[in-house]
Design a protein that fits this description.
1 helix; Porin; eight-stranded antiparallel beta sheet; mainly beta; 157 residues; 3% helix
Length: 157
């Protein structure tokens, strides 16, 4: 569960519109986390860069009579500069850890209006790996911004 999912849970009413007859959320769905990263490796064991992270949640809003009233949409866009350190650095296999801090911009859209906010965001990568050379597959265990586990393809230019 990403930090966005925790902030959007019913236990955090500050982040929700109150219709007066609001009771709870149900049928919570999200797009998953999409990450676009740009990295630079000036030294063999250090990598510097930034991630642009997008996530969207859709929640069904129910009144006190347990009747569905509408959907609430929340969009999150994060910019997180980060640094990674490679523990193992072989041509076709690498392991690393990393940390990043940045900002999240959020938009909540509901029939009563729109609400914008921003907040400090952090991401910790206790363990990541890359398999391949020019085109590589990667996987990361994450804490905070990028979900619990993320993976994908990396292309070296």
């Amino acid at each position: 569960m990403s930090i966005f999912q925790r902030l959007q849970s019913p236990e955090y009413p500050f982040f929700s519109f109150d219709t007066g007859d609001f009771d709870h959320f149900d049928n919570i769905r999200n797009t998953g986390t999409f990450i676009l990263g740009v990295k630079y490796t000036p030294k063999k064991r250090w990598k510097y860069g930034a991630d642009l992270v997008y996530e969207r949640h859709i929640k069904g809003v129910y009144n006190k009579s347990n009747q569905y009233t509408d959907d609430e949409f929340t969009h999150f866009m994060s910019f997180i500069p980060r640094v990674d350190y490679y523990w193992i650095y072989r041509p076709r296999f690498k392991t690393y850890s990393g940390i990043g801090t940045g900002v999240t911009f959020a938009l909540k859209d509901y029939r009563l209006g729109r609400y914008y906010w921003s907040e400090f965001m952090m991401n910790i990568i206790p363990l990541g790996f890359e398999v391949g050379n020019k085109v590589s597959f990667y996987g990361e265990a994450n804490y905070f911004a990028n979900g619990i586990v993320s993976g994908g393809l990396r292309v070296k230019l």
